[in-house]
Description:
Layout: E1 6-15, E2 23-32, E3 35-41, E4 51-56, E5 60-64, E6 66-67, H1 87-98, H2 103-118, E7 122-129, H3 139-150, E8 153-160, H4 179-193, E9 202-208, H5 216-229, E10 233-237, H6 241-251, H7 255-261, E11 269-273, H8 279-288, E12 291-294, H9 296-301, H10 309-315, E13 319-321, H11 335-346, H12 357-371, E14 389-393, H13 405-411, E15 417-422, E16 425-429, E17 432-433, H14 438-458
Parallel strand pairs: 1-4, 1-5, 6-7, 7-8, 8-9, 10-11, 11-12, 12-13
Antiparallel strand pairs: 1-2, 2-3, 5-14, 14-15, 15-16, 16-17
The structure holds zinc ion.
Amino acid sequence: MAADRRIVIENCAIATVDGHDTEYASGYVVLAGNRIESLGAGRAPEGLENVVRRIDATGHLVTPGLINTHHHFYQWITRGLATDHNLFNWLVALYPTWARIDEPMVRAAAQGSLAMMARGGVTTAMDHHYVFPRGSGDLSGAIIGAARDMGVRFTLARGSMDRSEKDGGLPPDFAVETLDGALAATEETVRQHHDSSFDAMTQVAVAPCSPFSVSTELLRDGAQLARRLGVRLHTHGSETVEEEKFCHELFGMGPTDYFESTGWLGEDVWMAHCVHMNDSDIAAFARSRTGVAHCPSSNARLAAGIARVPDMLAAGVPVGLGVDGTASNESGELHTELRNALLINRLGAHREAALNARQALRLGTYGGAQVLGRAAETGSLEPGKLADLVLWKLDTLAHASIADPVTALVFGAAAPVTASFVDGRQIVEDGRLLTADEDAIARATRDEAQRLARIAAQA
Ligand SMILES: [Zn+2]
């Protein structure tokens, strides 16, 4: 939308998720081009010029768009498998199938993953992709193209693995890259696709998969590469007791100390899970401003444990939410993770004081922007920030009898999305994507899932 064209949204409750948690029981938001121009209580200012659209949002809550900080899009076509396994057994069961993916499969899976999140209010997505079988095509290009076509803001965490079965790792030998090959391909992806501008739609991070699937050299050299290129770093950390044991046996230290020894703590780093953290691990994350992608449903699905989110927040660790790959969280929706984060953390040590509705909403918005390094641009509704926001419909059977809109959104059923805007462009209307054909994507993902299952069965 041209910079001088305005959209006015009025008569809605607003949760800005700014530094003071400012909320308006009834207010307005004015979008100008791809930015939020103004917002506040009551009606929009009179006399605005070039208003191309006025939305009467009565019965709605407007929030910043949701930000997903950890995912593996390709897993969309391997959902519902190995359903009763812990992480290591689940990985061993699925790697032989994942090793057979190709470009059409990855494209369809990316579309499925993105569509499911976008229509549930996600405006910034990320994909940690780390399986690059030899001769499988331009997987990074396919994923980035899918996000661009859908109109979702996007970070590709270009993953890699170089520790296979023969080196004591879990992936089969043919599913991994060489150290030099992984570093060169990652650098090429950054150079080709990373945009560092304020309103970037595509960014790239350096993202070796996990301590137990990559060599120490790939971690250390990957960190140096990211800092040389000025991009962020992402990986899995401290997910399970088995991983902790693996690190002690191989490296003589726990995961956080191992990460520190390889250059992997810092304000340009975010890690998925961080379930098994002691007090000194949390202090190290807080001191270094290392971010965390909290994935409550996936952690429950794989029986990994409960991350100490209240302790992390109290220490000042930046925390966002992630759905994780959909082979370990079959729903693939982020708005339901607001509720799951709140409920699962209340099963931990802090009980009813663990998280409240506003903290859960903050994890899914501003916290996500922090860990993706985009808090100046998105994650809260403030003048000058990007026009990424969602209108949640809260006046139907599911929510109408709950007085407080943020409580309704977080504690209640998954709320319908009346409209979702990214960069000032509407991508969802009444729960349906405007930028893609959901039914065509559903068919393509089913076809590609069946093709992958056939190829894997023949291998
Ligand atoms: Zn993951």
